[in-house]
Amino acid sequence: MESLNTIKIIYLYRHGETNFNVNGITMGQLEGIKTEFTQVGYEEIRNISNSLKENKIEVIYSSDFNRAMDTAKLANTNNQLPIIISKKARGLNMGKYQGLEFQKFINSEEVKRSFENYNIPFPEGESINELNNRLYTFI
Hints:
By secondary structure, the protein is mostly helical. It has helices at residues 19-22, 39-54, 66-75, 102-107, 109-116, 128-138; strands at residues 60-62, 83-85. It contains six helices and two strands; from the N terminus they run H-H-E-H-E-H-H-H. Strand 1, helix 3 and strand 2 (83-85) form a beta-alpha-beta unit. The model has no long low-confidence stretch (mean pLDDT 92).
């Protein structure tokens, strides 16, 4: 039987709320776009910071997108943990729907097919299974 000393718990945190979230814009893997945190986003980051301390987190892993890296850095201000950045930690590549209104994404028939069958990629993006496999190899 495994000793409790060898068990690792992984906590997943989402980046702080941004202006894109509030405005209903899908971000996905859009590169080179700078988003701004909302007041709610800053409060979420403070909560993450407290959780890092309370749960005795040892290291922070972040995607390479600004919103994720900025969340990690701000949440880590009082914790001084190592931060490891990886492209494999990116969220779903929503293809041609990135940067568009979320309602256009969620109401699209081709997007609905991708949610019904996890092997079908989003147009010009990746499938849910591709996302799952990427994140699984990352973890």
